Amino acid sequence: MSATEAEIEKNTMEGIFRFDLPGSSSNEFTECYIVLKHRNSLEVWSSTPVRIFENQLNEFDFTVAANVYGNNTFNAGKRRVMLSGDANQDGFIDLEDYSMIENDVWNMTTGYTVTDLTGDNFVDIEDLVIIELNKDKFLSVKSPLNPEGLKRNNTATVTGNDITLNQNFPNPFNPSTSISFTLSSESPVKLSVYDIAGREVDLIINQNLQAGLHSYIWNAGNFSSGVYYFRLVSGDFSETKQMNLVK
């Protein structure tokens, strides 16, 4: 399920979003997490699943700290809900984002660009100050599926603990998709699928696997269209990626 229409008032930062709830009537609801995403900020999750009723006005306020999962906000006031700086949208605010923004500062880049963190159509010292404040805090997306935040995989240097989880292919898909990952050493592995409410809906594999590339087909023939997440857990490593089933 995703928003089919969105209207946001820039002065108040209030928004109206319309959702399609397949198979629902006016007396039914869908329980799901609400995820707020922006082109250069870390995504923010609602702290608990929210009931979305068909053909009714449903209110949710991300500026209330208790409504936000984890510590993804640095100020609960309006315009300060999301942590800015994830210019490359990899789920981290780090030196890679800093380099992108710094480069555009010195090139005096203007316009609607991901490196413009203040939204004034200029990439300048104000944007550099924001990324300076955030890049050393080891910030990453936190969600019910990743309560400790994402873990960085450095694929440039291979060590005995390296694990690489690839994006499923194809994506979107119907009804089957391939999920692959690489282990550099023998490891216990659990690969599961979750729905948008954070419930585990399928267990693909849960056993010790040898080093190397592993690939599994997930057949979603018995599942309805929507957003799903696949999560790989091995020791202290965990990573989650999103996939979309379209029937």
Question: What does the model show?
Answer:
This protein has a four-stranded antiparallel sheet with strand order 12-11-14-15, with no helix packed on it. It has a three-stranded antiparallel sheet with strand order 9-10-13, with no helix packed on it. A two-stranded antiparallel sheet has the order 1-2. 9% of the residues lie in helices and 36% in strands. The chain has 247 residues and is mainly β. It folds into three domains: 3-67, no CATH class; 92-140, Type 1 dockerin domain (Orthogonal Bundle); 163-245, Immunoglobulin-like (Sandwich). It contains two helices and 15 strands. Helix 1 runs antiparallel to helix 2 (125-135). Residues 74-79 and 154-160 have low confidence and may be disordered.
Features:
single chain; 247 residues; mainly beta; Type 1 dockerin domain; Immunoglobulin-like; 4-stranded antiparallel β-sheet; 3-stranded antiparallel β-sheet; 2 helices; 36% strand
CATH fold descriptor of the largest domain: Immunoglobulin-like
Question: How is the biggest beta sheet arranged?
Answer: 4 strands, antiparallel
Distance between the termini: 13 Å
Spatial order of strands in the largest sheet:
12-11-14-15
Give the % helix. under 10%
Order of SSEs: EEEEEEEHHEEEEEEEE
Q: Helix/strand/pairing class, anyone?
A: mainly beta
Indicate the low-confidence ranges by residue numbers. Answer: 74-79, 154-160
Percent in strands: 35-45%
List the helices and strands and how they pair.
Elements: E1 3-9, E2 14-19, E3 29-32, E4 35-38, E5 41-45, E6 50-53, E7 92-93, H1 95-106, H2 125-135, E8 139-140, E9 163-165, E10 176-183, E11 187-194, E12 200-209, E13 212-219, E14 226-234, E15 237-245
Helix pairs in contact: 1-2
